[in-house]
Amino acid sequence: MPEEVEIRESSVGRLRVRRCGSIEEAQHAAGEQAQAMEGAAVVPVVIFEQGRRTFLTSVMSMNWVANHAESRPAPKGAQTDAALAALNRPLVPAHSRAIGRYLREHYSENYIIPPLTLNLDQPATVYTLEFRDAPSLMGYLVLPPNAHMTITDGQHRQHGIAEFLNELRQERPNDYAQAARNGVPVMIVPESNIVQAHQDFADCSKVKALPPSLLTVYDARNPGNRLVIDLEKTCALFKGRIDSTSKVLSRNSTLLFLTNQVRQLVKELLCGSYALPEREFARRAQEQLAKKYQYEDALKKFSAYVNHVTKALAVWSRISRLPDTVEAGTIPALRAEGWLCLTATGLNLIGRVGHLLFRNGTREWRAYAERLGEIDWKRSADFWSGNVVQNNRILTQQGPLRLAVEKVCDAIGLTQELAAPSTANESVVEQVATTSG
What we know:
two-stranded parallel sheet; alpha/beta; 14 strands
């Protein structure tokens, strides 16, 4: 057996490191120890250091993650002592169910599960080489029989995987074996100090979620998102004037809208509500845009509508004709003039009118779109008082928006019969707590 070298207990916990002359010797020694322990597992790992500690990375099967990675969530509403005794935040079942649902929908195609961070707080041995001037070393970790690791980061992924495999085993046993063998990347932290384990969890949580606009750009599974990107390319108002990386749009921004705000416009045009729940929006987008001809028809129709309204609204028309090298202050100056149609609320309102026109197959939709230019779109206009503007503040809730839509429809001559929302759409939207635009 190779010479055993103990790593500092304070920084590596109970992990023992045994150094060998070659990687073949390390593999052979690890296999001998596992065989002697009966039921132990040999896991290929990469060994590296961060700060004063040694870490391991590897890939575990979904089945292993589901059955051997343990979470210790704090009870909801736990007091300080209970929270300190736990290793994870309170479990949010809806979050883990969403992950399980994502896996069920995509396991036979393409999907991705980010790495879990696991804590090895029980004795284990890793066989490796002598340390050299390299950022990492190959090695073999020997896990004792029935070894478990606690989850530092990723408990909702683990629960989602477990729920997914359990349902798949019952509903589609022929698919279960293959899915259970799929790999999940893990980073293993040999840490026996629970205080440091808590700190590791806090450090892992210090990540910035993708802003909704960037998520729209990157997530192409929903054809509604692709429609957003293509509208940006085909609409003169939007082209080169949409911010795809920010969460909010500054008053001084030289860009006009966020990608997420254009996405709300698409939700209005396609479904009749910017506040539609994401799952419902994805379902409807799949129903209405899944086939190539459906998608192309929707893109052509919505692009034509936005471009027609752009010509009708004086401020939109002016912005659409601005050169690429426009002076930095031009759009902020127009925004400061108080145009409702330069806000997310105005964009949603125009989208809702478009939805009503196309849903009912109104052949004269261009004429109605042109009449939108006859409305005073200044937020200070009496037209908006009592619906989407109160005390010079723009409201974003569904109720005020609905009142404004009714008033706009009346102003452009769109009859109540054509403008009436569908009952099915209303029942879904009324269940949603609206968000600001």
